[in-house]
Design goal:
Pfam families: CN_hydrolase
Keywords: Hydrolase
CATH superfamily: Carbon-nitrogen hydrolase
Largest sheet: 6 strands, mixed
Organism: Nonomuraea mangrovi
Mean pLDDT: 96
Strand content: 25-35%
Strand order of the largest sheet: 5-4-3-2-1-14
Bound molecules: 2-oxoglutaric acid
InterPro entries: C-N_Hydrolase, C-N_Hydrolase_sf, UPF0012_CS
Order of helices and strands: EHEHHEEEHEEHEHEEEEEEH
Structural class: alpha/beta
GO molecular function: hydrolase activity
CATH topology: Nitrilase/N-carbamoyl-D-aminoacid amidohydrolase
Distance between the termini: 52 Å
Length: about 270
């Protein structure tokens, strides 16, 4: 399987329309790949909170239309990163869009863990509630977005649902680049899965994003890793490695699901 991670530059100086056109052209240029991935919130920018209301769109909005056409033109599976979705309930969601080779929208995933503590997503967006996977001829894809990387229980749920390829769009901050590298590889090793982690590059909204997109195999081997700037990172992935490592090191079978919680777990009065 050949994959490309489009590590798009997201800056304050380019409009969402301009970036959408540029991203579509980059996707169209990936004919011959099997799967192409874009970063998190690359239309509005993940750190430009003030633009989210104006830039919000439904799942069949301008980004979806442009990405559907680009996926069809290149005949690739396209994980188009995430958009600020305005849901039917009026809430905003950080929503991933997956298109098949014909350009059909096959899955959406609303980010479950919202980043920001007392600002950003945590304040302005609603949380997704659904663990999402999809079977494809490439293998079963599982969805997670950026901050989700810090929550291994989501990844275990994805693997319990049969995931072999974890796709993680992100807009990770540059100053935590080493944490990104560790977490991406850790998820690959512990879930014995391929991880395709596509981060935005450049600065906007006062935040420098990490770049450093990675394709990692289930051994934790980094098959390809981007630098800090805009780049199309391409990797050849041998999907047989997933079944091979799960047979050779069957750690997922050794889980103990009945470990009792300590008596003082989460107790406010615990010393
Ligand atoms: O967890 C982090 O350090 C960054 C998360 C983040 O930037 C995001 O989810 O948008």
């Amino acid at each position: 399987m050949r994959v490309s991670l489009i590590q798009l530059l997201v800056s304050d100086t380019e409009s969402a329309d301009e970036r959408r056109a540029r991203a579509a052209a980059l996707v169209r240029g990936r004919a011959g790949d099997d799967l192409v991935v874009l970063p998190e919130l690359w239309t509005t920018g993940a750190w430009a909170y003030d633009d989210w209301q104006a830039g919000a769109e439904p799942v069949d909005g301008p980004t979806a239309r442009a990405m559907s056409a680009a996926a069809r033109s290149a005949a690739v599976w396209l994980h188009a990163g995430t958009v600020v979705e305005r849901g039917d309930d009026g809430s905003l969601y950080n929503t991933a869009l997956l298109f098949d080779r014909s350009g059909a929208l096959r899955r959406t995933y609303r980010k479950i863990h919202r980043y920001g503590f007392d600002t950003g997503e945590a304040v302005w967006m609603a949380a997704g509630r659904e663990v999402v996977t999809i079977g494809t001829e490439l293998g079963r894809l599982g969805f997670a977005t950026c901050y989700d990387l810090r929550f291994p229980e989501l990844f275990r749920a994805l693997v319990d649902a049969g995931t072999e390829i974890l796709v993680v769009p992100a807009a990770w901050p540059a100053r935590r680049r080493e944490q990104w590298r560790i977490l991406v590889r850790a998820r690959a090793v512990e879930e014995q899965a391929v991880v395709l982690a596509c981060c935005a590059s450049g600065s906007h909204g006062g935040m420098e994003q990490a770049g450093g997109s990675m394709a990692v195999d289930p051994w934790g081997t980094v098959l390809a890793e981007a630098g800090a700037g805009e780049e199309v990172l391409t990797a050849e992935i041998d999907m047989d490695v997933v079944a091979a490592i799960r047979a050779e090191l069957p750690v997922l079978q050794d889980r103990v699901l009945s470990i009792p919680a300590p008596e003082n777990a989460r107790s406010a009065s615990a010393p």
